[in-house]
Design a protein that fits this description.
There is one protein chain. With 466 residues, the protein is of the alpha+beta class. It has six helices and 27 strands. The strands form six sheets. The chain has a nine-stranded mixed sheet, covered by helices on one side. Strands 15-14-13-25-26-27 form a six-stranded mixed sheet, with helices on one face. Strand 5 and strand 6 form a beta hairpin. The radius of gyration is 23 Å and the shape is globular. The two termini are 31 Å apart. 46% of the residues are buried. One of its GO terms (molecular function) is metal ion binding.
Length: 466
């Protein structure tokens, strides 16, 4: 290392300069100075290798799985055959026993969207699986037989460790490919993805080109055929387009992605809950009615008191539109839902709320604004140890690009924000502690750019620090 000399009295300034080169400190927390290199946000062409269809006539494609019941002992296996229904059975066996079984309760759907007709979409629910067990499964038959595997979650319990991945607003650009690759290479080896909405971005193409739903399904198969992805609907799943005669919201999404919503007494696949290891996960719909007396409102009102924190200490809420957001993009869009639901999030001591929608990253302090009404002027969020941490992770890499413009000065409630693409992990250790980190996509290397040791709001409600 070379030697350095400073003028008298300049060392403090040098230290300050070094500090400011790492982070820009505003009224709030940290606004990262990192500026990612920009290249065009365009969807990869259809002939990209990541979209390649499997060989063989009518071979099953777009294979994906999600949790199939409330407690993790079921799995929904879904796939598409392009030309005809084909085999409707899923053959599966435990790696422990090798005893082969098959399920026949497969539902096959198709749909039409403007000038597009889907392939044959299969959904098969397999039940009564053993916990923490590797299963192999086969869809298709004969020369187009395709084999995959998954691992069931462990039994639900208060100190069961489990690692979730977090991805949002993914799309199918080169940046999307980097995000998915980095997720699959994450050294924490996450076991399941909490996906906070906006999947294919097919609606950003002329006539909502549903071929982009097919290419996206093939693109993510390399992960979602092996891991449960827990789905949240976003605005790009609505696909409401009356100018071309499409009046049914969420048509492609609801045909393609089956949800175990009835297991939690929900009346809609757009909001539901599941248990997984030591976590209770509640999924909300930002684009369904949620005012008082609506079905989603009534469901959540009845759902939150059911959560037993002695069984599932970690209470996680997923939605698409963030309730707190200090970017100029989609600014205040979540305000009406915040007014309705935030008092409950605080009352029931939700640990963390994950959202997407804003194409950047942000983590909040534990704050609330339940005192505010339109007449009292108390419009500034305050520190609240019972409140969730709000994390925006709509940074998967989609066609619309990054949200780079931030509100200034940075609000006090904002702990860290950065306009980059990436993914995150939420690594539950036991009932009191979980490690969270956000990984930036940067120059081919997934860099851990933000992290926090979470302390459980029910069992260990002390203030965290980064």
């Amino acid at each position: 290392m070379g030697s350095h000399s400073f003028a008298p009295g300049s060392s403090a300034l040098a230290v300050l300069a070094c500090f400011l080169s790492v982070a820009v400190i505003c009224n709030g927390g940290t606004t990262s100075p990192f500026v990612r290199k920009i290249w065009p946000s365009v969807d990869m062409p259809f002939d990209s290798d990541v979209f390649a269809a499997p060989t063989g006539h009518n071979a099953p494609q777009q294979v994906h799985i999600t949790q199939g019941d409330h407690v993790g002992k079921g799995v929904i296996v879904s796939w598409v055959t392009p030309h005809e229904p084909g085999s409707n059975k899923v053959h599966y066996w435990s790696e422990k026993t090798g005893r082969k079984k098959h399920s026949e309760n497969t539902v096959v759907k198709t749909y039409k969207y403007y000038n597009y007709t889907s392939g044959y979409i299969h959904h098969c629910t397999i039940k009564d699986l053993e916990p923490d067990t590797k299963y192999h499964y086969v869809v298709g038959s004969g020369h187009v037989r395709r084999q995959f595997w998954f691992v069931t979650p462990p039994e639900v319990g208060p100190d069961v460790p489990y690692t979730f991945g977090l991805i949002g607003d993914l799309g199918q650009t080169l940046d999307s490919n980097v995000t998915l690759t980095h997720y699959q290479q994450n050294p924490y080896n996450p076991k399941s993805v909490l996906f906070v909405g906006d999947l294919s971005y097919a609606d950003d193409h002329p006539l909502h080109n549903n071929l982009r739903w097919d290419s996206w399904g093939r693109f993510v198969e390399r992960s979602v055929a092996y891991q449960h992805w827990i789905w949240v609907s976003g605005n790009h799943e609505i696909d409401y387009c009356p100018e071309i005669g499409e009046y049914t919201p969420f048509k492609p999404y609801l045909h393609r992605y089956e949800i175990p919503y009835r297991e939690s007494n929900s009346t809609s696949p757009l909001w539901y809950s599941i248990k997984r290891a030591s976590a209770y996960i509640i999924v909300l719909s930002s684009y369904s009615a949620y005012a008082i007396y609506t079905p989603q409102y009534v469901w959540l009102q009845e759902e939150l008191p059911k959560v037993n924190r002695s069984e599932t200490p970690w209470l996680i809420v997923l939605m698409h539109t963030p309730l707190y957001n200090s970017y100029n993009y989609h600014y205040m869009e979540g305000e009406s839902m915040r007014v309705v639901f935030e008092p409950w999030l605080v009352q029931y001591k939700v640990d963390v709320v994950f959202a997407g929608h804003v194409h950047a990253y942000e983590r909040s302090e534990r704050i609330s604004n339940v005192a505010y009404n339109i007449t009292n002027g108390l419009a500034t969020p305050v520190s609240d140890p019972n409140a969730p941490v709000y994390i925006t992770i709509g940074d998967g890499g989609n066609i619309e690009g990054l949200a780079k413009n931030m509100t200034e000065p940075q609000p006090e409630y904002s702990a860290f924000r950065e306009a980059s693409f990436g993914h995150a992990i939420f690594d539950i250790k036991n009932r009191t502690h979980a490690y969270y980190s956000w990984n930036r996509n940067n120059d081919g290397i997934a860099t851990e750019a933000d992290s926090l040791w979470f302390r459980n709001r029910y069992w260990d409600p002390v203030k965290e620090s980064s």
